[in-house]
Amino acid sequence: MAVVVFSFTFPVLAYYQAGFVPSAPALSTAFIAYYFYFKNVKHKDNVSFYLAIGLMLAAALYRSPFNIFLFAILLNELWNAFNSRKILWQRFSVMGIAYLLLFAFQVYKKYLKEEFGSMFLTELMPARSVDEFVNIIETVWLNWSMSYFTWAHYILLLLALVGLLYAVLVKKQKIDFDSGLPVQVFLCLGGAFLYFLLMARQFPDHDYYFIDTFYLGFILFFILGLQFITTNSRGIQLVFNSALFLLLVWASHSAAGIQRYRYTFNFWDFGEITHQNFVGSAEFLDSLGIGRDATVLVLDAYSTNAPLILMERRGYTVQHTLKENIQSGIKEGADYIVIQDELLPTGVILNYPELTQHLNKIDGNGRITVYTYSENEIDQTLEDLLWNDVSLTVDPLDFNSKDSTSLWSHTLPAAEDHKALLPGSELFGPIWEFNGDSDFKRLLLKANFLSKSIVSRFEAVLSIVQHDQVIFYRSFPIDFSEADTWEDFMCMFVLPGNLDGEVQLKCNLYNPNGAEVWMKDISITY
Question: What is the predicted pLDDT for the residue at 404?
Answer without folding.
Answer: 64
